[in-house]
Write a structure and sequence with these properties.
Length: about 230
């Protein structure tokens, strides 16, 4: 059973997220918060596997809450709920170690997919979020966009062939276990590859590595494929 905390200052949003999650018998909501301060307190009390945080809330927002959760309850992974036009907030949340990003207007199935992926140790970037982040990073014009793409590819080219394969699946939201099954590797081997990938790319977490993968164009898995479903 995946234990979840939901934090959003809008009661209707919290109710909607809870209703979607209630359709999955493997997920249970253990607490709700109306702001980031309350979210941190409830995470410390309930120790959920995943905290689903609105990226902007009055007082203590989702980004500040994510940083405090990472510091005090590192075993709880954070999924940020965002809307279009919040690209800079997404980049800040990445730097604070958020493991997943979902669009509030997205499909209910994507919410469940993202939470399951993050709970399983993966990073999950909604395809729309990934596209927005990459577009924002390249907002300086065609030259800047080409420079960033070239820089991302250069970073990826420094990886081994196997690491690039692992990065492609990581960027599509697959967990270590799922990557291991698809590449016919031991899960411990995949974990070692991921650690090496983060070090070689110079990033702190899987979500940031996923952004590099998207920017470099090394994410071949179809974006409409649910990452927690085995084929």
């Amino acid at each position: 059973m995946i234990r979840i905390l939901i934090a959003d200052d809008e009661p209707m949003i919290r109710a909607g997220v809870r209703a979607v999650l209630a359709t999955d018998p493997g997920i249970t909501v253990v607490a709700e918060a109306a702001d980031g301060h309350q979210a941190v307190e409830l995470v410390q009390r309930h120790r959920p596997q995943v905290a689903v945080l609105d990226i902007r809330m009055p007082g203590t927002g989702g980004i500040e809450a994510a940083a405090e959760i990472r510091r005090t309850v590192p075993e709880t992974r954070v999924v940020m709920l965002t809307t279009f036009g919040e690209d800079e907030y997404i980049l800040r949340a990445l730097s604070e170690g958020a493991a997943g990003f979902l669009i509030k207007s997205g499909e209910p199935e994507e919410l469940i997919a993202g939470i399951r992926a993050v709970a399983d140790g993966a990073a999950y970037l909604s395809p729309k979020v990934a596209a927005r982040v990459v577009a924002h990073l390249a907002a300086g014009g065609a030259g800047a966009r080409a420079d960033r793409r070239s820089a991302a590819r250069a970073r990826v080219d420094a990886l081994t062939t196997r690491e690039r394969e692992v990065l492609a699946f990581l960027g599509s939201g697959f967990s270590n276990g799922q990557i291991a099954r698809r590449l016919r590797l031991a899960e411990g081997t995949v974990k070692a590859h991921v650690s090496s990938i983060l070090a070689r790319l110079g990033v702190d977490n899987r979500a940031a590595a996923a952004v590099v993968a998207h920017e470099a164009g090394v994410v071949p898995v179809p974006s409409d494929r649910l990452p927690y479903v085995d084929s």
